Structure formats: C-alpha cells, structure tokens
Amino acid sequence: MQIGVGLDRGLGLSWDEYRDLGRYAARLGYDSVWTNASNGRDAMHVCAQWSVATADVVPGGIGTGVSVIPVGYWSPASLASAAATVGEISGGRFVLGLGAGALQDRAFRHSLGLDDRLRPIATMREWLTTVRGLLAGETVDHEGRAITLHGVDLGAPPPRVPVALGALGPNMLTLAGEAADAAALNWCTPEQVSASRDTVAAGARTAGRDPSEVAMIEYVRICVDDDVDVARRAYVRALMGYALARPGVNKTLGYRGHFGRMGFDDALNDLEDRRDRGASESELVDAFPEDLARLVGYFGPASGARAAFRRLAEGLDVAIVRVVAARPEPPSITAVMEACRPD
C-alpha cells in the first residue's frame, strides 16, 4: 500500500507553504501529496508546484494527484491538456481524479449552465471515455449528451496519466471498474472499502478487465491535538460539511446517500431536523455522535493517529492522510503529517 498526504485547499496555504509542506511530506517518506479541487485556485497548478518542490528532496519528486475535480467546471480538452502538462512536469507521477460533483443537484447544474438533462453516471462515462482517450494520445470523436468532440487530440501524448473516478454509490463504483484506472473513495468505514472493492471488481470483470488494473484510493481524515475536544470539533465540522443534506435535497443521493448506506441515517436525520429548527453549527457539532464520527476517521492525541489510520486504510492501494487542522496554524498540519508518517 502506498501512503500519501492530502492538503485541503481550505487550509488557506500560501504558495510558499504548499511547496514547503510538499518537501516536508517527501522528507517524512510519503509516496505522494494530493489536493482536492473546485472553482478558484487551480489544483493542477498546485500539483505541478509540488512535483518541482519535492524534487529538491527525492530525485524526480514524489507522486502527486487531484482527488477529485468536479467536471462541470471544465471542458474535456482543456482538462486533458492541463493533466497532460502536469504529467510531463512530474515525469508520469500525476493522477487525475474526476468526479460528478453535485451534478445530481439542479441548482448546481443551473449555476454552471449545464444541460438540465445531465445525469451523473452517463455524464461520467462520457468524461472517462473522452479524457482517457485524449491522455492516451488518441484522436477523439464523440457525440453525446454531455460531450461532443470531433477530431480532437493533444498532439504528442504525455507520460501515462491514470484517471481515477470519484465513486461512492454502487453504480459509480461499477463504472469505475468498467472504465477508470482507479476508484477514488471518501469517508468510508473499512467495511465500506471492502464492499466498494467488490463492486469495482465486478464492474471490471463485466467489462472484460482484470480487477487488479483498477486501484482503490481514499482520503482518510485525521485531526490531532492534545485537547481532544478541539480535535473533535474541527473534525466534526469537516465531516458535517459532507454528511448533512441541504433542505430539499434527495437524501439517497451523493454523500448523504453514502452516509445513509453506512448506517448514519437516524443520526443525520436528527441533526438535519435540529438545523432546520434553528440550531447553530456549534450545537450540531456538540450533538454529533462520537461513535459514528470515529467510524470514518480519527480525532484525538497524535499517539493514537497511526493505528487508527492503518485500520481505516485496510484494503486500499493508495491511502491518503487527509489533514484536518485542529487549529488555524501550520503546526496543526505538520502534527498530522508526523503522526501518520509512513514506516
């Protein structure tokens, strides 16, 4: 199993801090350094900076990746071009993660001017087909609901750039097995990792692929502090940002559906009811059940982080220590990196 470290774009890092923390990850022995993506600061530029900076520590630099880019913000050709560029800069040590984002949400589609008929599975199938083809050096002709390309290529093919699919539910996991180089999981119990691998493997076999060709990647959230309550509150705030459904949203879809399938439904329904009656974020953090929070990540003293991370990473090919900073200061970031450093 490879071990990476994930630095959330919400940490508010400067470019110098990005580079310094990348070098620090390399010195600690991490195999790769990752970031998430959305509109705003370009995640692939962050990865390129890491690749160059970590080459100061490890010949050629350590691996880097984005998990994941919501596709609605890009065109396939521009995304493939950017990924190919980072692939060249990194010497083939870059992984591109693609995700549907909130494509199931009509408001999200409307905000980006996307076709209201688009649906996540069909859309991501088109993205995987076209982007992987472009990155493989093919000339792509494709006419679909989400993507239309006629005779598009990148010129010279880049070094191999694996494409991971952000996948939570069974249909997206099946698609990852059928058409991606990896499945990028998030917020999973070990049992969910195992079940997800089985679903991905079944999808691969259906498509005539060897399941071993499809890697399993996941962010594992870790927050450390000697003050356990400080760590708990920071961690639970991060968790609730994914787990709680907005009013009026279908709770069987997206992250809310994912947490429901893992047995969080009753607790989340209660929290959502409290929120809708006017409870503050602080009150919701206090009410979040600790036993459920610990099923998908770790918060507490640094001394317990490594064992918890290893338990949660069981069954993965690439396990990424996703840093949750207990306090808004660099030592909270490096404390997590040090606590979970590879053996």
Automatic annotation (TrEMBL):
Domain spans labelled Luciferase-like: 11-282
Pfam family, one: Bac_luciferase
Superkingdom as given in the UniProt entry: Bacteria
Gene Ontology molecular function terms on file: oxidoreductase activity, acting on paired donors, with incorporation or reduction of molecular oxygen
Protein's name according to its UniProt entry: Luciferase-like domain-containing protein
Organism taxonomic ancestry: Bacteria, Bacillati, Actinomycetota, Actinomycetes, Mycobacteriales
InterPro entries, per the entry: F420-G6PD/mer, Luciferase-like_dom, Luciferase-like_sf
SUPFAM superfamilies to which the protein is assigned, alphabetical: Bacterial luciferase-like
Keywords on record: Oxidoreductase
CDD domains: Tetrahydromethanopterin_reductase
